[in-house]
Amino acid sequence: QALKNRAAARYQLKDYPGVIADLAIVVTRGEAGTSEYAALGVSKYQTKDYKGAVADITKAIDGGSKDNAVHAARGLSLFALKEYEKSIPDFNRAIELGQTDTEVYFSRGAAKYFLKDYKNASTDLDKAINTGTKDPLAFDMRGYCRYESKNFATAINDFDEAILKHPKFAQAFFHRGDAK
Predict the structure, then answer these.
(1) DSSP readout, 139-177?
(2) Which residue numbers in the chain have pLDDT < 50?
């Protein structure tokens, strides 16, 4: 129990390597439950061990976790692994459970963008932008979605915004040129 308590304290302090070290022992002993797998998976996501994160978070979700951050972390891990189609249900579930983080909307929109689902991607990118993302890629992607919808004037506005935020963003220049 001491390792679980220390891991929980480390998790609160965002000492993710420490969480992983403590919970690895708990797992080896066969004493891990849903909350430990959730903390372990989120910690692995935070340390960019995306495959490990997916495996542990899946155990937490299969064990009944309804924590929106857990679903978001698995979605973000799958997204990082370029498993876009698999990431979308986790983003959906995280949002259903109350997740309002801009990164979740941006990543879900980007996943749909990479799957060429431009109409639905645009809706999520709108939410990401409206909830505060300043990422020029969000504006470029939304602009491209609008370009695909033949909405050239608003597409150009988005490309201009992406360029304003990142003056050397070649892709946005390229897309703006196509839209004109």
Answers:
(1) HHHHHHHHHHTT-HHHHHHHHHHHHHH-TT-HHHHHHHH
(2) none
Query: Which is nearest to 180 in space by CA: 155, 162, 163, 158?
Result: 155
Cβ atoms 105, 78 nearer than 8 A:
no
pLDDT tens digits for 29-60? 999 999 999 999 999 999 999 999 999 999 99
How deeply is 13 buried, as exposed, middle or buried, from its count of CB atoms within 10 A (0-12, 13-18, 19+)? exposed
Which tokens is 106 given?
A: 């941006």
Which residue bears the tokens 């155990």?
A: 59
pLDDT at residue 25, as a whole number: 97
User: Distance between CA atoms of 102 and 106, rounded to whole angstroms?
Assistant: 6
Q: How far apart are CA 157 and CA 165, in angstroms?
A: 12
Closest to 85 in 3D by CA, of 105, 59, 65, 108: 108
Q: What are phi and psi of 124, to 5 degrees?
A: -70, -40
Q: Whole-prediction pTM value?
A: 0.92
DSSP state of 96: H
